[in-house]
């Protein structure tokens, strides 16, 4: 058992493709977890996690800071080692059943993404609370939870759930600067075999929205446009694509 849902994780979102910026500590921690699970207890680099009352790691930060990327990277490394694990994304919580979380405590690593989506859903909050308790009791595996806000600032209504999450290790992910965002785009373009000139990259970073989700979405569009027109991604192509954001009739 690796994934409780037929989820296909992005192939290019691995530890190698993650530009850590100021997030070196948590990247190192998760890589160590993925390298040593299920026998991570006693590993010196994971001493803090081993000492925590609940084996849980919180990844906190606003959209675009790489929380999901780090969960994907952890799962990819575990899959490469054929270590059982689970990845659950709560963004589609209304179409899922809390029963999805049953028996996951038997797995070495459980990744829960976008926890904020269950806020106010009593059945889901109870289910996650119960899962954390089972993980704590069985001592088989560990949890990695990603959310936009920390447990103390969470909109989750169940006090006991906030308390359980707070018992884990919390890492606030920091945003990348423009140079690091440029590294991300260059790396992703290279992985796709795209020709992205330094001038086009500079223009893109200075004339578009700077959050990574928007930048990656724009790169996807430029990739499609480049294929359609059989052209390299030039400043002119970037300008034309950005113009369509403000004038949909432009082409």
Automatic annotation (TrEMBL):
* NCBIfam families associated with the record: DnaA_homol_Hda
Q: Which InterPro entries match?
A: Hda (IPR017788), Hda_lid (IPR055199), P-loop_NTPase (IPR027417)
- Source taxonomy lineage? Bacteria, Pseudomonadati, Pseudomonadota, Gammaproteobacteria, Alteromonadales
Can you name the source organism?
Answer: Alteromonas oceani
Coiled-coil ranges per UniProt? none
This protein is called: DnaA regulatory inactivator Hda
Q: Where is the Hda lid domain?
A: 178-241
